[in-house]
Amino acid sequence: MRTEDAIIRPLLRIRDVVARGALYGLAAVPLLGVASLFVGDHHDRRAFLGVVGLLAAFVAVMGILLGFFFWWTCEGDIRRCRDWHTVTGQAGPITVAAPVLLRVGVLALVLLPGRGRRSGVRSWAGTGVPGPSGRSRKIVRIN
Question: Which of 8, 25, 107, 129 is the most exposed place for a label (fewest CB within 10 A)?
Answer without folding.
Answer: 129
